[in-house]
Design a protein that fits this description.
It contains 47 helices and two strands. By secondary structure, the chain is mainly alpha-helical.
Length: about 1500
């Protein structure tokens, strides 16, 4: 852990302690605070110095030599601290003596708190905060410190500026704070340390690096150092109070001087502005156009609305400022203020009145100039409008007369002539418009308008152009008469062509439609080829007829070309239409031939594709059959054969590849529309089923081979193990090396016997199991039609039997050898050993054998039975071998007896007992042998039963698996006939599988019964149970049921599909027949065109019957498709083909209807032409008369439009009245022409000039609308001007009334005088009166807003504006409020102690800060901390006295009480005596005061003011 703080504290506290120990003598100074307090002596001296108390320390040990004495000294010091109220938590005397640095530093910090900081506050947290607050206040406003302000006692002090600010705040003479910004952090810290140490006697407790070079200085060390500043500077409070009193006087004097200067400066600016504006208003350069005058008027209005109100507000503000200055001077007993010459409020008011007079004169001059310009503008506007209209008419006439007329028929020629006649009348009616223009030009000239010359020139030019139109009209008349004669000759040729062309096009259309509808040639290659002869004959006949009829039409067209006819109102048909119709016939014939060729190619392609698919399908089936035969013929060992089989089968890739090709052929067939194929019974489903059957065959065969391989592998592994064992055992058995000792003989015979009963018995069982396995393999191969198993020669049963026989022979020889070896050794030993040893051995052997023979054999497996038999055979051999030993014992006993052994009878008796016991073994041995033989026979029978069961159960399981795979084949056929026939095969297959299942399950049941009969409950040869057998059989039966269900479903589906195919075929044939009947009915219709059309529509019914039938067939086909039906051998029709036939029928009907419609149109056009020709002459005369009269009226209305569209522009009620009179005169004249307009409207339907009557109607309606609009506009304008005039007067009255009221209130405000209390009462009354101005201002503002919304920009009744009045009113309110506030402040100053608002805010700030529990009161210790932060340091007695005086003896003080307390303690007075006394305090009772004295207690700007204005002293430099 970083101990930097500990090192800094150690150093700081050491210096702090020494600063107090110096009072006691240099011998007591410490060097290491960790060890120097150990004896307690220097600690006691430190406490005496810092507490200034010594009576407690007289009994300490001056020369402690042992640890206990040192501890007692330290304990004395700690008891003193406790008595002083210092709390030392977890610090014992031993800790100090032992040099625990952390606890020693903690103790010193506690002492510092008690004696250095506690006098700032009663509690540490509060004390630290109070000290920090004091530092903040003293450094407030110092650049680099505030902002941001001191935040803590670590990082806020790193740059040294806060220390420099504290020194400069109290002793600015000691350092120049402005130089701090040019110094580094370390330099600032060193500067502060040096000055504090040299000038203020503050010890250097810290090093520079402890602050400047530390990221976070130690807080306790910084507090310890900074608190020294507090104690040094706290004594300057009295000087600060004196400084505030003098500073307040300085601030007042400077403030009043600033206000005076501000008033004079602003008043002078206002006076200059008013004089400039009067000069501007007197200027009469008002402009020469209405726009220039309007701009001047807008400029004037903007001045009144924006510029003047601001200045009016400034004028009122100056009056308020003037009054405020007078109040301040009066309330502070100063002489009144006299403004500069010409700038007093009365003088400014006189100048303001002159400005108002100049405004009125300016406005009158602008209105007069605008009136003249408006009249000139109206004349110019009218002339311009009428000249434009006449110019457009002349332009239009020039264009008309110079236009080359395109006359291409008789009617057009007559129409053009009438049009020219109408123009002649219009020309005559237009002449008066030229005279009107000349009159307008004269009016502009009479008014000396600037545009007079240009207007006269323009009117002369229009007159010349008008006169030049007459000759052009005469030339046009001649040209039109010649065109009429030419067009009459063309009309006859047009009618002949119209009739002949119509008949031919109708014929050609019907012929082409008939050919185009002939597109069905059959649905097979045979039927398409057979239809070729019919198609060729029809094409030849049609071609001949078409050629004849087209030639007749061509002759009629040639006539038209000869006459130059390029259009024909009797027929839209042209030679192109005839050629197109003829080409349509040729195209239809060629298209039919091409369609037959396409049909023939399509059917040929279909047939080829059918054969291609059939050949590929047959090839595929043969390939699959050949592949199966090939795969079935493969031979070899299972693993290799399985691999060969898989490699040869190759995952069915050959089949899959062929199926892909077949699928592609199938898709191509479907794309060609092939739905059936008579060349093959196979489809893709049947072919895929064939491929799947081959795959199942391969998988079944590989499964059987895998089982065969597994069994063979098992056999060979077992055989190898057995032959290896025989090979390794044979040499051991044949080995006859011996040690020629009895023990060796006995050991070797025992080992041999153990071998026979364990290892040999186990291998005999393995040999028997191997034989059974070989039999199982042969049975499996026989069942799978595989060649018999021939193991490798070395592993064959014959080889193994031969090796086993040789082993048995070796074993027999080994036994005989060992027995002979043992007999020989025993015979040799008989003479060497004593009888007793042999007897004991024989007795032991007898005991073992009796126990063996008495033990019941535990046999429950074949292995255990075989093992027991081998063990018993060993016993028989051993018992036979032991007989010689028993005989030898008898012989030995006889020999002993012969030697006359003293106890020979006992020996002889013992030998007899041994012989008897040996003989007694024969009977139980025979019984046990029989029991073992019986058990062996039983277990052998069980093993045979197990093997038989396993074979039968596995056989059933394998058969069931293969059977299920084969039964899974769902290929029953793909036609109803095939599926029906397959039912017989299915019945035979079901019977065969069920018979085999019953047979194989019966075999398993018989084997199971045999096991149960023998009590067998386990079987190591298989895990299959009878339940598994039942499941295998059930699975086969279930598969049969599923196949039967699938077959029944397939049969039902094929029956359903067949029925669907038949139904669709029948419906399709009926639909085709119905289309033929409908076509015949349409062709047979007769009567007029309308009757024929109605009859055709009635038959066709918009194609709905055909669409409904076709929709039904489509749904039928969709249902078949959704049901899976593919192909239909009962019909060649498909839905698309039927749709094509139906569309052909619909096209036939459409053509028939079009032909009928063409006939009807031609008849109607002919009749209409006859009617038009009969009425042509009558209409021509009416047309002429109509155009002539209509043109006259139209010209009048057009001229009237110029007057009616003039803008309604007025600025007074009188101007509107003149415009109304002019409109009334026009309305009377318009009414006189209304009968003529009515007559023309009545005539209009009988003349062929819709455009002219439409123009007249539009112009008449437009004129009426213009009259109404102008009448309404004048009415609106009249109301508007009347309303505007009323608003002007209303505003003038309200504004003047409000202005008078404002003047009166301003006068009252200016007249407020007397003592401060009287002024305050007058101002309160004035404030109440001023509140009534809101309503008046709202009224004036509302009227002004209405004038703005109405667009009124002038008012001859007044020069006042709402903005000006509002500004003056706000200035009045501001001035009143300011004066009231000023008077109140002055009264407060006179009545209070002289505490500034800033001091009050300071009181509130510190009160809230130290009110920790936020109960709005301060306790004793909180008040002390609060007073300390304000630079006051009362004693405890003084503090108690304060609570008694200001809190009534309570233990808490409120803010009001606190404010009273602070006010009494900081009273300032600006009397001459108090100011003189304050200077004496600042000077330190000197007869002069220096700039440094002033700077120590006052703000720099206050000091600067005093130095500049106070007289210099001759007693000392700088005083």
């Amino acid at each position: 852990m970083d101990k930097a703080w500990e090192r800094v504290q150690q150093k700081t506290f050491t210096k702090f302690v020494n600063s107090h120990l110096r009072k006691k003598g240099k011998e007591y100074l410490i060097e290491d605070i960790q060890t120097d307090f150990a004896s307690g002596i220097k600690l006691i001296k430190f406490l005496e110095a810092i507490s200034d108390k010594t009576d407690w320390s007289k009994k300490y040990d001056k020369k402690p030599k042992i640890r206990i004495q040192q501890i007692q000294n330290v304990d004395l010091a700690m008891r003193f601290l406790k008595a002083e109220g210092v709390k030392l938590v977890a610090i014992q005397a031993e800790n100090i003596t032992d040099g625990n640095l952390t606890l020693i530093l903690g103790m010193i910090w506690t002492i510092i708190q008690q004696y250095q900081i506690s006098d700032i506050s009663e509690e540490e947290l509060t004390a630290k905060e109070a000290l920090l607050l004091w530092c903040k206040k003293k450094t407030k406003g110092y650049e680099g410190v505030d902002p941001p302000g001191l935040k803590n006692f670590h990082t806020s002090w790193r740059d040294g500026k806060a220390l420099c600010a504290l020194i400069h705040r109290h002793r600015p003479d000691l350092l120049d704070y402005s130089k701090c910004k040019d110094k580094t952090d370390a330099e600032n810290v060193e500067w502060a340390f040096q000055v504090a140490e040299d000038k203020l006697n503050i010890p250097r407790l810290l090093d520079v690096e402890d602050l400047a070079d530390t990221a976070k200085p130690d807080e306790r060390s910084v507090i310890t150092y900074v608190v020294q500043y507090y104690h040094v500077f706290a004594a300057s409070q009295k000087g600060e109070v004196a400084g505030r009193r003098v500073g307040k006087l300085v601030d007042l004097t400077r403030a009043i001087n600033r206000l005076k200067n501000d008033y004079n400066t602003r008043a002078d600016v206002l006076r200059s502005w008013v004089n400039d504006k009067i000069q501007w208003l007197d200027d009469r350069s008002l402009g020469e156009t209405e726009e220039e005058i309007a701009a001047k008027l807008a400029e004037y209005n903007q001045y009144k609305k924006e510029e003047k109100p601001e200045k009016a507000g400034e004028k009122s503000a100056l009056e308020g400022l003037y009054n405020s200055i007078q109040v301040k001077l009066s309330s502070n007993n100063r002489p009144p203020f006299e403004a500069d010459t010409g700038l007093s409020p009365p003088e400014l008011n006189d100048l303001w009145a002159k400005l108002a007079e100049a405004e009125r004169n300016r406005e009158q001059a602008l209105r007069g100039a605008r009136s003249r310009e408006r009249e000139l503008n109206l004349l110019n506007t009218r002339l311009d409008d009428k000249a434009n209209r006449l110019g457009k008419w002349i332009d239009k006439s020039d264009a008309y007369l110079g236009r080359e007329e395109n006359v291409d028929n008789v009617t057009a020629a007559n129409s053009k002539l009438k049009e020219l006649e109408a123009w002649n009348g219009e020309y005559a009616d237009t002449k008066p418009r030229v005279a009107e223009l000349q009159a307008l030009s004269k009016g502009i000239k009479d008014l000396n308008g600037p545009t007079a010359d240009a207007a006269g020139k323009r009117v002369d030019e229009l007159s010349t152009r008008f006169d030049g139109l007459a000759p052009k009209g005469d030339a046009k008349q001649k040209a039109l008469n010649e065109a009429l004669a030419r067009e009459q000759a063309k009309d006859a040729a047009r009618q002949a062509w119209a009739k002949g062309a119509k008949e031919y096009v109708q014929y050609a259309t019907e012929a082409a439609d008939t050919v185009n509808g002939d597109r069905y040639f059959g649905d097979s290659l045979e039927t398409v080829d057979a239809d070729k002869a019919r198609v060729d004959k029809d094409s030849s006949d049609t071609t001949a007829t078409n050629g004849t009829k087209k030639g007749e039409a061509d002759q009629l067209w040639a006539k038209l070309q000869e006459l130059g006819v390029t259009d024909n109102k009797y027929s839209p048909l042209t030679a192109d239409d005839v050629n197109k119709a003829s080409q349509g016939v040729d195209t239809a014939l060629k298209a039919r031939d091409a369609a037959w060729d396409e049909a023939q190619k399509r059917e040929a392609a279909k047939e080829a594709k059918r054969k291609e698919f059939a050949d590929a399908a047959d090839k595929f089936v043969k390939s699959v059959d050949a592949r199966r035969a090939e795969l079935d013929a493969l031979q070899g060992e299972p693993t290799q054969l399985s691999q060969t089989l898989g490699k040869t089968y190759d995952d069915g890739k050959p089949e899959n590849e062929q199926l892909k090709q077949l699928a592609k052929l199938q898709e191509e067939s479907a794309a060609l529309g092939i739905t059936s194929n008579k060349h093959t019974p196979y489809n893709m489903a049947a072919l895929r089923s064939k491929s799947s059957a081959l795959e199942r065959f391969v998988k079944n065969k590989q499964s059987a081979l895998a089982e065969e391989a597994e069994l063979k592998h098992d056999y060979e592994e077992r055989a190898k193990a057995l032959t290896a064992w025989i090979a390794s055992t044979q040499p051991k058995i044949e080995d006859q090396s011996v040690a020629n000792t009895l023990d060796d003989a006995r050991s070797k015979l025992a080992d041999f016997q153990a071998y026979r009963t364990t290892e040999r018995a186990e291998k005999a069982s393995a040999k028997s199991a191997l034989t059974s396995l070989e039999q199982t393999i042969q049975t499996l191969l026989q069942n799978n039609n595989r060649p018999a198993y021939e193991p490798p020669a070395a592993l064959s049963q014959a080889t193994i039997d031969e090796q086993w026989s040789a082993l048995e022979s070796a074993e027999t020889a080994k036994g005989e050898f060992l027995r002979s070896y043992l007999a020989r050794q025993e015979e040799l030993d008989v003479l060497l050993k004593r009888f007793n040893a042999d007897a004991n051995d024989l007795e032991s052997w007898l005991g073992e054998k009796k126990a063996y023979l008495a033990e019941e054999p535990q046999i429950d497996t074949l292995y255990k039975a075989q093992y027991a038999r081998v063990v018993h055979q060993s016993y028989d051999e051993e018992a036979s071998n032991r007989k010689a030993r028993f005989d030898a014992a008898s012989t030995l006993a006889k020999q002993i007896a012969d030697l006359e052994y003293g106890d020979a009878d006992a020996i002889t008796g013992k030998a007899g007992e041994l012989q008897a016991a040996y003989d007694a073994l024969a009977e139980p041995a025979a019984a046990k042998s029989k029991a073992i033989a019986d058990a062996l026979a039983t277990e052998q029978a069980k093993e045979d039963a197990r093997i038989a069961y396993a074979s039968k159960a596995k056989n059933l399981a394998r058969w069931a698996a293969v059977a299920q795979q084969n039964i899974a084949d769902r290929t029953f056929g793909f036609t109803l006939d095939a599926v029906t026939k397959h039912g017989e095969k299915l019945d035979a297959s079901d019977a065969d599988y069920k018979q085999q299942a019953d047979k194989k399950r019966a075999q398993v049941a018989a084997a199971t019964a045999k096991l149960e009969e023998l009590g067998v409950t386990d079987n190591s040869h298989t895990k299959l149970t009878p339940a598994n057998a039942d499941a295998s059989k059930a699975a086969v039966l279930k598969a049969l049921e599923a196949r039967r269900a699938a077959y029944d479903a397939e049969l039902a589906q094929q029956q359903r599909w067949d029925a669907s195919r038949k139904a669709f075929a029948d419906d399709a044939e009926q639909f085709v027949a119905w289309l033929g009947e409908q076509r015949s009915q349409v062709a047979a219709t007769s009567g007029s065109p309308d009757e024929r059309a109605d009859a055709i529509r009635a038959i066709h019914q918009d194609g709905k019957p055909g669409a409904e039938k076709l929709d039904a067939l489509g749904k039928q086909a969709d249902a078949m498709s959704a049901d899976g039906v593919v192909g239909n051998d009962y019909t060649g029709y498909t839905v698309p083909l039927l749709q094509e036939r139906n569309e052909t029928y619909n096209q036939f009907v459409a053509t028939a209807l079009q032909n009928v419609e063409n006939d009807r149109l031609f008849d109607e056009q002919t009749a209409k032409l006859q009617e038009e020709q009969a009425a042509a002459d009558k209409r021509e005369q009416e047309q002429f008369e109509f155009q002539k009269r209509a043109t006259v009226l139209l010209n009048y209305l057009d001229n009237a439009g110029a007057f009616l569209t003039e803008p309604v522009s007025a600025t007074s009620v009188e101007e509107v009245s003149e415009s109304k009179k002019e409109l009334d005169s026009f309305k009377k004249e318009l009414a006189s022409r209304e009968p003529e307009y009515g007559a023309l409207k009545a005539l209009a339907p009988s003349v062929k000039d819709g455009a002219l009557i439409d123009d007249l109607n539009a112009k008449w309606d437009e004129t009426q609308q213009l009259v109404s609009k102008r009448e309404a506009a004048l009415g609106d304008e009249s109301g508007k001007q009347e309303s505007n005039e009323a608003l002007r007067k209303q505003f003038a009255d309200a504004a003047q009334k409000f202005q008078d009221w404002l003047n009166g209130q301003s006068a009252k405000l200016a007249g407020t005088s007397g003592d401060l209390q009287a002024q305050q009462k007058s101002l309160e009354a004035l404030v109440t009166e001023n509140a009534g101005g809101d309503e008046q201002l709202a009224g004036v503002t509302d009227i002004a807003q209405q004038l703005d919304e109405a667009g009124v920009t002038d008012n001859p009744h007044t020069t006042l504006s709402a903005g000006q009045l509002k500004s003056e009113y706000e200035s009045l309110l501001d001035a009143t409020t300011a004066k009231q506030k000023l008077v109140g402040q002055e009264i407060a100053k006179k009545s209070d102690s002289g505490v500034s608002p800033e001091q009050i805010n300071e009181f509130r700030e510190v009160f809230n800060h130290f009110d920790k529990n936020k109960d709005a009161t301060l306790q004793n210790f909180e008040l002390k901390a609060c007073l300390n932060s304000l630079g006051d340091d009362p004693s405890e007695d003084e503090l108690n006295a304060l609570f008694t005086k200001y809190a009534g003896g309570a233990d808490k003080i409120s803010f009001d009480q606190f404010t009273t307390l602070m006010t009494d303690r900081a009273k300032d007075s600006d009397t001459a005596d108090s100011i003189l006394e304050s200077f004496k305090v600042i000077a330190g009772d000197k007869d002069f005061v220096t700039q440094s004295d002033l700077a120590a207690v006052m703000q720099p700007d206050q000091v600067e003011y005093l130095v500049a204005n106070m007289p210099k002293s001759d007693l000392e430099d700088g005083a």
